[in-house]
């Protein structure tokens, strides 16, 4: 969560979408930065993207490896004369994307997840394929064509209903086109991997790691809604894994190309993992922000996600959600007025209760939706005001007590706590005789240490630890 001065007020609809919606971890098409200003040129577009994703991350060894890898991959494509520039983004999100200009972006979160050079090369080859196949231009052309047809029908034929039908149909067409692009880029990337001397099975291995990481982070299963599947712009990860593995098998058997795990691990050793303590850290159900000196605890079992705009949380079944953010206030604005100004559903004067939470002034209100009920609180800490929104089903008897426990946990964190918030990093350790998955996982300073250790190292329950082999652990 960023500082109060950088946060904008959000309308109730946007709040509900953030609070009740989900998130995904993908790589492929470039995401749209939140609240990105108008782009005035290629350099400006690059600067805005970098700023929107936490800035550029300095990792000289990793950058050198990626640049050398990219040069090797480009030489194996159908457009070996293309030029690319690589940027590592300072975000724990697992993502990579490319711009038509040849700018390639990879996050430090993705570097931590990949396990060898061929896995990272698979990601870079995928992004290069988007550029060489001119996918961005194809998407723009399809969208422009749909808009033109819709406008002709609407303006010339005066048939608004037909225009709406065309827009809906083109919405599905665009989704299918984008899904086709992703699978096409995957297929091309596997061929490029093999041509560049990398293990072509690296693509399937990384996609498997991505699938496991998403499951570990979100705990959510694939949606069974056929409409959602129809509108998904990326194929499901299992589908991509199967396609990538089949493409690799058409080339040869596993192990024909280079993986070079040792060189890869050496290049990423020391790379930061997870959130920056200055921007807030999630530790289990606790959130602590060193810069703002504020923290709170979610109810037991909640999963917290520290996004750029807010801290979002959800119970395992998704029936309770929370959001914690900072809001901008006007001079002299009371906390009840803050609630009314930042939450557009009805908050009547009589519904607002003023109280004190751990020595901090607070105001609490209730808002009732059709299926969801919202408990909304504003807490003032010095010059800053924080808002807690707790959403739950209207018939949930234990939700009010859970909200009250969360509200009562909001507090100033101490200087000693701030000093103890060290940034976690990828550490490479060598397994000693007698080491097991459990003994190595015990070194992890993360939630779900065993599961996280397995996922980050590409291990499964039946996999044995090999003495002398090097493994990733996450520690300060």
Could you characterize the architecture of this molecule?
By secondary structure, the chain is an alpha+beta fold. The protein is 42% helix and 18% strand. It has 16 helices and 16 strands. It has helices at 12-20, 42-52, 60-75, 108-113, 117-132, 135-156, 160-195, 202-218, 226-231, 237-251, 261-268, 335-342, 399-408, 415-419, 437-441, 449-457; strands spanning 85-89, 96-98, 103-107, 281-283, 286-289, 294-297, 303-306, 311-314, 320-327, 353-357, 360-368, 372-381, 384-393, 411-412, 425-430, 470-475. Strands 7-8-9-13-12-11-10 form a 7-stranded antiparallel β-sheet, sandwiched between helices. The chain has a 4-stranded antiparallel β-sheet with strand order 4-5-6-14. Strand 12 and strand 13 form a beta hairpin. The two termini are 21 Å apart.
Question: What features would you highlight for this structure?
Answer:
four-stranded antiparallel sheet; disordered N terminus; alpha+beta; 476 residues
List the helices and strands and how they pair.
Blueprint lengths: L11 H9 L21 H11 L7 H16 L9 E5 L6 E3 L4 E5 H6 L3 H16 L2 H22 L3 H36 L6 H17 L7 H6 L5 H15 L9 H8 L12 E3 L2 E4 L4 E4 L5 E4 L4 E4 L5 E8 L7 H8 L10 E5 L2 E9 L3 E10 L2 E10 L5 H10 L2 E2 L2 H5 L5 E6 L6 H5 L7 H9 L12 E6 L1
Parallel strand pairs: 1-3
Antiparallel strand pairs: 2-3, 4-5, 5-6, 6-14, 7-8, 8-9, 9-13, 10-11, 11-12, 12-13, 15-16
Structure at a glance:
With 476 residues, this protein is an alpha+beta fold.
Q: What proportion strand? A: 15-25%
Task: Enumerate the strands of the largest sheet in spatial order, edge to edge or round the barrel.
Answer: 7-8-9-13-12-11-10
**Low-confidence sequence ranges:** 2-26, 29-40, 145-164, 166-177, 220-233
Radius of gyration: 24 Å
Count of helices?
Answer: 16
- Protein structure class: alpha+beta
Largest sheet: 7 strands, antiparallel
Distance between the termini: 21 Å
- Residues in helix, %: 40-55%
Mean pLDDT: 81
Number of strands: 16
Globally, the shape reads globular
